[in-house]
Amino acid sequence: MVRLGGQSGVGRACDAIKRRAKKLLKKFGVVQDEHKTRRYLGGMRPDKYYDSVIWRDLGETLQILGFTYDSGFDVFSAFIDIDDDNSGEVGVSEFHKWLGFPATKFSERVFGILDMDGSGQLDFREFMIGVWNWNTYDATGITKLAFNTMDVDQKGAIDLHEADAMLRMVYASRKADPLLLTQIDINGDGEVSMEELQQTVEEDNSVLAPAFQLQRMLRQRILGVRYWEQETLRRQTYFAGYDSGTTTSWDAIRDILAIKHRERLEEEERQRRLKEMEEEQRRQEKLQKELKFKEEMAARKAKRAEEKRRRLETPEIRAAREAREELEKCSAERDEECIYADLARRLDLRERYWTAFETWIRCQRVVEQMKCDKKLRLAVGPDVQIKVDEDIVTAEGYQDLKREVLVLYTMEHSDYLYQRDWCGDAWFASLMIRPPVDEFDDAYEPTWVARQSIKFAKPWTKKRLAKKARELMVDDLREREELRVQEENEEHMQKFEDDCRKRRNEEIGGYGKPRSRWERLWDADEGKPYWHQWETRESVWDKPCVCHVCDSNIPVDDTMCFKCKNKRSEFNQKIYDDNHKKIDYAAFLAAGGVDDESTKQEQQEEVVDVREMDDDDGPPTLYQRYLKKHVVFLKKKNDINNRTTGHRQGQGEVQRPRRYDL
Q1: Sign of torsion over alpha carbons 119, 172, 165, 251
Q2: Residue 72 contacts by C-beta under 8 Å, 6 or more apart in sequence?
Q3: Which residues does 584 contact at the CB level (< 8 Å), separation at least 6?
Q4: Contact assessment for residue 375 and residue 485, using Cβ atoms and an 8 Å cutoff
Q5: pLDDT tier for residue 438 given thresholds of 50, 70 and 90
Q6: Quick one: pLDDT band at residue 145, thresholds 50, 70, 90?
Q7: Which comes out higher in pLDDT, residue 56 or 146?
Q8: Residue 584 or residue 353, greater confidence
């Protein structure tokens, strides 16, 4: 069996060696490259025309068909070699002349198939697509093309007369070989189907030897046989679905180009979106880096500022800072849970906490006093000079300066006139000063005469008086600023002491005093905290209201500590007020409340306060010595009234007063 559709390995190697040798000879100038001297359409060289026109307009189609920039230029070089007259089109005679293949009906039919518009000429697009289509055909494709040339009615079968015409057209002979006709009609029914012809060609492709010879010659002239064999495999892999079925080769090519064009657009869109996502990701990464860099720079700047501040801080400020850090450390440890076994550590923490608290208050008091002293120094020092200079620039300040200058000039000139004691000097000096109105007015103001006299004063005299007036203004402002800043400093220190006292009371109310015996511990079994009095071994689940004097637990309804006879602290009193909010009867009625007997009874009960006797040993209190008998009397009277009211209302029980403070 003869295989004419392919080429041996030796032949492919020879073709490759010839092409490389030709390129090297053109590169070194041994063989002249006609493409560098030839001028094509528009007077451009072929390479320039290919780059500026062909690749721009048909580059997408070339890439869809698998051509690279260089391989596409090789196809274009073959096209312009055929196009001797530079018309931009190739005729059938030019094609056969260039190929060196005799013109046959079959080759003309192949050329006609390449001619998509039926003009009889091939432009480069038709040539490029036709060359790719013909050179990538396998044996099945060539067989299908030959069969379709005779199957005009597309019945899928041809008779022996049509088969005879097909063979005569392929071989360019006047009579077909009867053996070939017998060979292709396998079942002997007088008709040749597509399957029978394909089976015959697969067994022996010499049946269509001229068609395979035409393909091999065209492959050799353009890009080589090896390239087209690889492209044939690529077509079988990627374009098999388009070549199958009853579609013609050109219909398949059109479908391939349309679908590949759409896929290319989708791929470009996908690549564009991917590129945008990558750009967005890079932008976000850049923003993150910039933000991280700014944070690092800010942290470094803050660290340098803190180091500089610590280098410049005084020993007093350093001591206050260290005390505050120790206090914060103890506060963090205080918030940690502790079991009963660690009670000793809890007691040690309480002592350290209050030591750090008192140390911080003492050091911070020194720091605040230093700030006040510095503020006073600045207020009576450079700040006074700056304020006076800023005030003189204004219109009101300038008038004050002129007034001071006039007063100084009047005093100096009048004293000079009195000391000279010439004739009329005393009289003129008296005209310059307005005398006081009464004994309560001790101000001597300059008159109109003084204002007119200063106009004739020497310039250096005015300059000297202006300087002296400015000094007087500075001294006056310094005294006023000193008094003002001293008052502000006193208020500041008083506020600092009040804040310290308030915070100390809050700490005592919330945490307990330095010698408190109540500690907050953790019950691992119950999974919640409890408060334990380690001296009396009393434990409660709810936070106790600890007295700030005797460290005992004050009941919720008691307004004072009956053990030490002291009132609640501000912290504990606030807790009591929150739990015992009194009803504003007037606001209750204004809001639409009902004025019934129970409401009146509530209001009446607020007047009476009955305290139980304190069983604790100690001296009698003011209540026990003076108020007890009056309270007992009011209690009996209120009980009688309640019984009467209860019987009148038909109630079975007697209402009793509640316990309130006097």
Answers
A1: negative
A2: 50, 54, 55, 59, 62, 128
A3: none
A4: yes
A5: low
A6: confident
A7: 56
A8: 353
